[in-house]
Amino acid sequence: MLEPIIVAAFPSLLLIILIGGGAAMRRRNIDMEGIPPIDKNLFHLSKLAMGIPWAAMFVQSLGVNLSPVRVPPPLRWISLSFYILGFGLMLAGRVGLGSSFRIGCPKDETVLITDGVFRYTRNPMYLGINVTSFAACLYTLNPLVLVIGAGVAAIHHQIVLAEEDCLKKMWGQEYTEYCRRAGRYL
């Protein structure tokens, strides 16, 4: 019964932090809604679709077998480790950005964050999404989860590339130098 709790707790914590952080930012008159850097519908669809692998993992954790083969228990625990790591990256990224957090390209001036987890990866939240999707693929061994996770990763990579263009325009040489020090994902 521990697995469903783990699988449900981390996205719930992320949602609480995102909603709570959004409310705190609104109280300070900070709009965390940025400009979608790619097609608006595809951008928003990608944000919704990233929850599908997590939902599949939760359903599997409840004992509903979504896999065409038996998932060995050690593989489930390995995938849970990746899942926790992925959510840790997302949480560290969100908390690390503080009031500079935006969904999309910032409409207003923000601060370029280069310390904490951002010292090692320019995109800890996107890296975390990819890691949690990978974890869900391992946990369920479901081909559809793999296809959806790969699709989300592909769309998010396009978002990352487009957001990088926005950030280069905002911070110029400072951002270029940061890109030399920290990898896009690792």
Secondary-structure-derived class: mainly alpha
Morphology: elongated
Could you say how many structural domains there are in total?
1
From the N-terminal CA to the C-terminal CA, the straight-line distance is: 34 Å
SS element count, helices: 6
- Looking at CATH, which topology would you report? Four Helix Bundle (Hemerythrin (Met), subunit A)
Under the CATH scheme, which architecture would be assigned? Up-down Bundle
**Range of helix content:** 55-70%
The major β-sheet equals: none
Structural account:
The protein contains six helices and no strands. By secondary structure, it is an all-alpha fold. It has one domain: Four Helix Bundle (Hemerythrin (Met), subunit A) (Up-down Bundle), CATH 1.20.120.1630. Helix 1 (2-27) packs antiparallel against helix 3, helix 3 runs parallel beside helix 5 and helix 5 runs antiparallel to helix 6 (143-181).
